[in-house]
Amino acid sequence: MSNGRNNNFSINTILGPGASILGDIETVGFTRIDGSIRGNLNTKGRVVVGERARMKGNISGTTVTIGGVVYGNILASERIIILNTALILGDVITRRIQADDGCLIHGKITVCQGDEAWDTAVAEYRDAQGVKSALSGLSFHAKKKPRHDDAVPAGKQPEEARNGRSGSDDPGSGEQAFDG
User: Fold this and answer.
1) Which is it for the CA torsion 70, 15, 76, 24, positive or negative?
2) Is the pLDDT assigned to residue 2 strictly greater than 70?
3) Greatest extent of the chain over all pairs of C-alpha atoms, in Å
4) Which residues are bridge partners to 69 per DSSP?
């Protein structure tokens, strides 16, 4: 009888200690990471990020266990287990969470109660990722507004400007250090 869960506990993919991957990974079964990844990891199975593993990218899996460093967001459709050696710099969306004393998490944690809450949280997350992706392709160039001290060579500034005064001591003289 199947309850919809992947109960296959054999490890299908291993990235061993000292190994590194630059790029996204997609797997179907249980994936264990003990090396380093710079890219996203998407699987329909379980994920274990070992204590010495380093990852910069997002993780998506059923049950995700973190023992190393993850700089990215984590979607765990069933549960996430965060060991005391873990450091997560990113958001977590899951249905159940277990966090050991001593783990470090810097991000937003969303624990969903029910399928509707899960679907909504994942849709909002994916929408936000889509917006970030679209914005990353754009380039914004703000024009720098010139400052008065930029326009006058440093050695040529009036004495009042070097002393931090904006004009004469006589308020009625109308004299000012800069044209503005």
Assistant:
1) positive
2) no
3) 95
4) 54, 87
pTM for the full model?
0.70
Asked whether the beta carbons of 65 and 45 are under 8 A apart, the reply is: no
Backbone φ and ψ for 104, nearest 5 degrees, come out as: -120, 130
Write out the two tokens for 80.
């996430």
In angstroms, the first-to-last Cα distance of the chain is: 81
112 pLDDT band, cuts 50/70/90, is very high
The tokens for 26 are 């997609």
Residue 89 burial (CB < 10 Å; 0-12/13-18/19+)?
middle
